[in-house]
Amino acid sequence: MGNAATKTNYASSTSMSKKKVCIIPIGTIDKEILHYTQKELEDRFNVKIDIGRQLEDPIYAYHKHKMQYHSTKILKRIHKLGLTGYDRILGIVDVDLYVPERTFVFGEAVIKKKIAVISLTRLRQKFYDLPEDLTLFKKRIIIEAVHELGHTYGLRHCTDNRCVMFLSKILRDTDHKGAAFCSNCKSIMEDKKAITN
Ligand SMILES: [Zn+2]
Ligand SMILES: [Zn+2]
């Protein structure tokens, strides 16, 4: 049902050449966070952003010894949706993610498929037993979302630790780098007409 409606909307708006990104909540994600992310990404990228139908909790990706979720399996689940009408997809999940090579990840992207996922779990102060800070939490979400979306435009990790495309190994890296592209990454994005300003 939701799909049919999406297709109709898309068909009626094909005259608009604006690219589209779909944010997919995986499990329950706070509505305010979803809308905030939607707006912030629309301000930064030259895209129209929709919020898609919520997917089930990713129990299929759960590793019971690690007590974490394999992010690549979540990306595969998103890919299997076969969503049409979107150029890129960004999943948002609130479980702790890992890939076999790393103890945890803030997110993951498949560059060729233009699919990405971010996790909110380690972006909260609470995760580190610190007092909650909603402003900081939201700031971190945008940094990670811009980073993973950046990958879907073909950007690789950047060596500039103030660039959003720098690989965050720990949260301090995220807080240090911020949500802006360095001049190099920015010019790649500009060439693709991928960003505003
Ligand atoms: Zn990355
Ligand atoms: Zn860069």
Automatic annotation (TrEMBL):
Residues in coiled coil: none
GO terms under biological process: proteolysis
Cofactor(s) annotated in UniProt: Zn(2+)
Organism domain of life: Bacteria
A GO MF term: metallopeptidase activity
UniProt key word Zinc: yes
UniProt-listed InterPro entries: MetalloPept_cat_dom_sf (IPR024079), Pept_M54_archaemetzincn (IPR012962), Pept_M54_archaemetzncn_arc/bac (IPR012091)
Keywords: Hydrolase, Metal-binding, Metalloprotease, Protease, Zinc
Record-given protein name: Zn-dependent protease
Biological classification of the source: Bacteria, Pseudomonadati, Planctomycetota, Candidatus Brocadiia, Candidatus Brocadiales
